[in-house]
Amino acid sequence: MKLIVNVSKNWGIGKDNGLLFHISKDMKFFKEHTTGNTIIMGRKTLESLPGSKPLPNRTNVVLTRNCDYNPDGVEVFHSIDEFLKSDINKENVYVIGGESLYRELLPYCDTAYVTKVDATVSNADAFMVDLDSDSSWKVVSESEVFTEKGYDFKFVEYNRI
Asked: What is the pLDDT of residues 75-99, one digit of tens each?
């Protein structure tokens, strides 16, 4: 599995169940990587998407403990074990959030695509594990620095060692 995330300098990823940054070049990067693949997310992440609807041209999977949760267009699993035992090809799965799902599925991921925004968001309430401080991950590529909406950012790819 892979994960894809947009983080602030302090590895913040969200505030009040929304993204910290809305950068069109990052949204395009996300779409290019995930289209045609499977994305897995928590219930709150699905509900934060436009119209609380699954993203088009992807297999949308939600992991939730709520056994009554059954939105249209989404495969629902109630545990990581249940998901891992499914016949979904894990090679083409992208973890897209939120915080607890990133933490729970990180041990199963071998690649991380991180958009690093050069800004600190002091009121962020959801965070990603700091891969720079985790000795089991290494940077394998970094893009040039881009600027959009007053933010400098770059795309960084990590691989599990």
From this structure: 999 999 999 999 999 999 999 999 9
Contact in structure between 7 and 117 (CB atoms under 8 Å): yes
Question: Does the predicted model carry a pTM greater than 0.90?
Answer: yes
The identity of residue 70, as a single letter, is: N
Q: How many residues does the chain have?
A: 161
Residue from 98, 124, 90, 122 nearest 4 by CA: 98
Spatial neighbors of 69 by CB under 8 A, at least 6 apart, are: 43, 62, 76
Q: Round to whole Å and give the CA distance between 125 and 7.
A: 12
Helices (H), the chain: 24-34, 43-48, 80-85, 99-105
